[in-house]
Write a structure and sequence with these properties.
Oligomer: single chain
Number of helices: 5
Radius of gyration: 18 Å
Number of domains: 1
Structural class: mainly alpha
Strand content: under 5%
Shape: elongated
Strand order of the largest sheet: 1-2
C-alpha cells in the first residue's frame, strides 16, 4: 500500500474523529457518560475499519490467498455496529430506585458516531458533516424540549 494511500486513510480517521469529537463534547457538556474521547475513538475506529478493508483485500490477493476471501463490504459494517452496540450497552444503566433506564441516548449517540466514521471512510464528507449537525440538534434541541415539558408538568 502506497504511503499516500495510508496518509489519506489517516486523514479520514482524523476527520471522523474530529467530527465525532464535536458530538462527544456535547455529551460531556451534558455530563453524560461516553463523551468526547469515546465518541472520537468510536468514529475513528469505524472509519479505519471500513477504509482498511480494501487494502486488506488487495493484500490477500497479492499473497495468493484470494480463495479465502468472501467479499461483502456489508459484513464490515455489521461487525462495527455489533461492537459499538456492545460498548453502548455498557453505558446503559437501570436505576435501582425505579424502572428508569438511563443513558440510552448516549448509547444511541455512540452508534450514530459510528455512522459518521463510516461516512467519512467512504468519502461521504458532506453526509458526515450533516450527520454531525443532525445528532447535535437531536441531542441539544430534544433536551431543551424535555426540560420545557418537565417544567410544565412539574416533574
Amino acid at each position: 500500500m502506497e504511503i499516500s494511500s495510508q496518509l489519506w486513510i489517516l486523514l479520514d480517521v482524523i476527520i471522523a474523529s474530529v467530527l465525532a469529537g464535536i458530538v462527544g463534547f456535547e455529551r460531556e457538556y451534558a455530563q453524560k457518560p461516553a463523551g468526547l474521547r469515546t465518541n472520537m475513538i468510536v468514529a475513528g475506529a469505524s472509519c479505519l475499519f471500513v477504509a482498511i478493508s480494501k487494502p486488506l483485500v488487495n493484500f490477500m490477493e497479492e499473497g495468493g490467498n484470494s480463495e479465502y476471501l468472501d467479499l461483502d463490504p456489508i459484513r464490515v459494517m455489521q461487525a462495527i455496529v455489533i461492537g459499538v452496540s456492545f460498548i453502548g450497552a455498557g453505558t446503559v444503566l437501570k436505576s435501582s430506585k425505579d424502572q428508569d433506564v438511563l443513558f440510552l441516548t448516549t448509547a444511541a449517540t455512540l452508534l450514530y458516531s459510528t455512522g459518521i466514521g463510516i461516512s467519512v471512510a467512504v468519502k461521504q464528507y458532506i453526509l458526515a458533516i450533516g450527520l454531525t449537525i443532525i445528532i447535535l440538534s437531536i441531542n441539544y434541541l430534544a433536551n431543551l424540549l424535555n426540560e420545557m415539558l418537565e417544567k410544565k408538568i412539574g416533574k
